[in-house]
Write a structure and sequence with these properties.
This protein is an all-alpha fold and 497 residues long. It has one domain. It is 69% helix and 3% strand. The chain has 21 helices and 4 strands. Strand 2 and strand 3 form a beta hairpin. Helix 3 crosses helix 12, helix 9 runs antiparallel to helix 21 and helix 16 crosses helix 19. The N and C termini lie far apart (79 Å). The N terminus is likely disordered. Keywords: Membrane, Transmembrane, Transmembrane helix.
Length: 497
């Protein structure tokens, strides 16, 4: 009987084994559509628009410096970074930023007669991109991520957050001349780019966005915070019950004041007031990318002087730190170091051949966009679309207009981006973790090099683990010695009896 029923079971198939119907596997198009809907959500478009502008405090100053000092084409950079923004928003589903590679930019615009040329800057970007793409595709970046302890990652984040904040304060207090890459005296208190403007922007941002901090911290809530959360949940449940029936199918949306949008629009108006001739200087016409010719000497100079100091910073801040921060902020959307490292590599392996500024993903940009309201991939998509429109219609003629944009406002936005990134480090509650984090932070800031701070943090972490191991073994030895001593005495006493 068992053999007779076997063919019948085979013919019936798996659809008759369960009580309900089995869903058909989704096609590739259906899976792509589902992923796209998850990554791009129009819950609050004003908040997403505000978050999209939250990273301009870093992007615009460095781009202006590279354009003025080294001749990097602004229109080409806007074109490629716009495409990058759109693709990263669609792929990751989080407000993943596209930022300049800061170490390469710092070396390129340094004072002296031997500043980097455009081919040398592109060679540095291509070299860094090739290394990150190799680490990502080979899986080595995953190994590196597992070996780096969390206190060291927090130390890198804290140093970057403090560095951003200090740079922002410098922008707000002193005038900046990007043509010579120097500060040119204290900023006046009054005027269309004065200190009072920066103070007003800071007050407005605090009133709109509050203290920030997000949910990137693993700290347990206090009793007062837990009571407030429970009260909010009860209020929300009551509101939902009262809205049933009359407003069926409608979702209750929270209104968010788009602080970054208002600050940016105010800056545009003030830029026109400061220099009305910038409007007449704008010319219609798209950016025209050209292939950059890189000589053997350019490869050597770009790799030695700019790529070598950039690679450790990219590995730590642009890959490991940004993945940790993203997974803390958005635990429902897992972002892997493999995908981020590969993304950074491919962006530069494509754009740098055409003269686009070397770029990366950064924890500071992610914190800034989150601070100003970005919650999914819509924010970078909107920013990328804006960059594409500007690049195709205005090209590089926008350079003069951006140069007249009030730096006090950009400094205010950058300040809160840095503070938001630094606040991610408050989950290091034990003495050992806080000690490692602060040692890494202090060395990184004093030497202005994240690689040296990383090495110091790793060394301190290993020394503390070694000390703990020695202490534990010593305690175990003492316990065993005392136990053996008591046992020996007991045996002697029993034998004497």
């Amino acid at each position: 009987m068992e053999f007779e029923n076997a063919p019948d079971r085979a013919v019936r198939g798996s659809q008759h084994l369960g009580d309900g119907p089995i869903e058909k596997p989704k096609t590739l198009t259906q899976r792509f559509t589902t992923r796209l809907r998850s990554n791009i959500q129009f819950k609050n478009i004003w908040a997403e628009t505000s978050g999209a502008l939250g990273d301009l405090g870093t992007f615009i100053p460095i781009l202006l410096a590279l354009a003025y000092v080294n001749g990097v084409d602004l229109g080409t950079t806007l074109l490629f970074t716009g495409v990058y923004n759109i693709l990263t928003g669609l792929a990751f589903g989080v407000p993943m930023p596209v930022q300049p590679m800061k170490s390469i930019a710092a070396v390129a615009i340094a004072q002296g007669p031997d500043r980097l040329t455009v081919p040398q800057i592109m060679a540095a970007g291509l070299s860094t991109g090739a290394v990150l793409a190799f680490l990502g595709l080979s899986g080595l970046m995953t190994v590196v991520n597992r070996l780096v302890p969390l206190p060291v990652v927090r130390g890198i984040q804290l140093s970057q957050g403090i560095s951003f904040s200090l740079t922002a304060v410098k922008y707000m207090l002193t005038n900046q001349n990007f043509k010579i890459n120097k500060s040119k005296g204290d900023r006046s208190w009054t005027g269309t780019d004065g200190r009072w403007l920066a103070v007003a922007a800071c007050i407005f941002i605090i009133l709109c966005t509050g203290p920030g901090g997000g949910r990137q911290c693993g700290c347990s809530p206090t009793q007062e915070e837990e009571e407030r959360n429970q009260q909010r949940r009860r209020n929300n449940s009551e509101d939902i019950e009262s809205l049933e029936g009359a407003q069926e199918g409608k979702t209750k949306r929270k209104w968010v004041i788009p602080a970054a949008v208002i600050v940016f629009l105010a800056g545009v108006v003030l830029a026109i007031i400061r220099d009305p001739s910038t409007v007449h200087a704008l010319k219609l016409g798209p950016a025209k990318p050209q292939v950059v010719r890189i000589s053997r000497h350019d490869w050597k100079v770009g790799f030695v002087r700019a790529a070598i100091p950039q690679i450790p910073l990219s590995v730590l801040n642009s890959v490991i730190a940004v993945c940790k921060l993203s997974n803390d902020l958005f635990p429902e959307k897992s972002v892997s170091v493999l995908s981020v490292s590969t993304s950074v590599g491919l962006m530069n392996l494509v754009g740098c051949w055409f003269g686009a500024m070397p770029v990366c993903h950064g924890a500071g940009g992610l914190a800034g966009q989150y601070k100003f309201g970005a919650r999914n991939g819509l924010a970078p998509v909107l920013l990328g679309a804006g960059k594409l429109v500007v690049s195709l219609f205005l090209g590089s003629s926008l350079l003069r207009f951006l140069a007249s944009f009030p730096m006090a406002l950009l400094g205010a936005m950058l300040l809160f981006s840095g503070v938001e990134l630094a606040m991610a480090c408050r989950d290091q509650n034990t003495n050992e973790d806080a000690f490692v984090m602060l040692m890494c932070t202090v060395v990184s800031l004093s030497k202005a090099n994240a690689a040296i701070g990383f090495a110091c943090g790793m060394a301190v972490f290993v020394l503390l683990r070694l000390r703990l191991l020695i202490t534990d073994r010593r305690d175990m030895f003492c316990i065993d010695f005392k136990c053996n001593k008591h046992t020996t005495r007991g045996e002697v006493n029993s034998s004497s009896l």
